[in-house]
Specification:
Layout (H helix, E strand, L loop, with lengths): L5 E9 L16 E5 L3 E5 L6 H9 L5 E7 L2 E2 L5 H10 L1 E4 L11 H12 L4 H10 L15 H12 L6 E5 L7 H18 L2 E6 L10 E4 L1
Parallel strand pairs: 3-8, 3-9, 6-7, 7-8
Antiparallel strand pairs: 1-2, 1-4, 4-5
Helix pairs in contact: 3-5
Length: about 220
């Protein structure tokens, strides 16, 4: 695939919710089209399924009813190789749990991904670290950093690849407004460079995007 222009959810619902009444939603059990180049903020109460949604879109979980399509192709038809290609070149992902290696430094965690993709220069990574206030923690083990510092490391790591969409699950839940805005600016700039879509979730401290399309989960 050259690129992904549209993600479609058609009647999608986590299987755990099938036997339960669900509140009105803009996402679950709906026909929803997410377009490349646009920004989406998906807001939900805790337990509403936002992390599940990101996992479904990333292909790391398939315990859902309904369909998910990438440019008209049902993602259930993807092979392991298809998913590997998708994650390497088309879909960036920042999970809520961050998935950093605690014994490695901030720099090493970021470079684990960037060395695989060759997406950005070391100079650009250093610039992002300076902007977002973690340059002094460049060689510090992530396991000894605050959760807010870890989130900033993970944000930089997430954009060290080509992508058509980026999935961000509560990416700034532990950041103050100033660092939230810096993170949003960096993500938005890199998404614009790729012509990519941004899909971010929140339970109360949203990524400060400019006029995103707001959806209730």
């Amino acid at each position: 695939m050259e690129r992904i222009d549209k993600i479609i959810l058609d009647g999608t619902l986590p299987r755990v919710f099938v036997s339960e009444p669900i509140p009105p939603s803009d996402v679950w059990k709906c026909h929803l089209e997410l377009e490349r180049g646009k920004s989406y903020l998906i807001e939900a109460a805790s337990g509403g399924g936002k992390s599940s949604l990101c996992a479904f879109l990333y292909g790391s979980r398939i315990d859902y009813e309904g369909k998910i399509y990438y440019d008209g192709v049902d993602t259930r038809s993807y092979s392991v190789a298809d998913w590997q290609e998708l994650r390497r070149r088309h879909i960036a992902y920042l999970p809520q749990e961050l998935s950093l290696f605690p014994e490695l430094s901030a720099w090493e965690n970021i470079q684990l991904k960037n060395r695989l993709t060759g997406a950005v220069t070391d100079h650009k990574i250093e610039e992002w670290m300076e902007r977002i206030g973690i340059s002094a923690r460049r060689d510090y083990p992530c396991g000894k950093m605050s959760i807010g510092q870890q989130q900033r490391v993970a944000i930089i790591r997430s954009i060290c690849q080509p992508f058509d969409f980026i999935l961000l699950d509560e990416p700034v839940s532990h950041l103050d407004e100033g660092n939230n805005r810096i993170a949003a600016d960096i993500i938005r700039e890199e998404a614009a460079r790729h012509g990519a879509g941004i899909i971010s979730t929140s339970v109360g401290n949203p990524l400060l995007l400019e006029e995103p399309i707001r959806l209730k989960l």
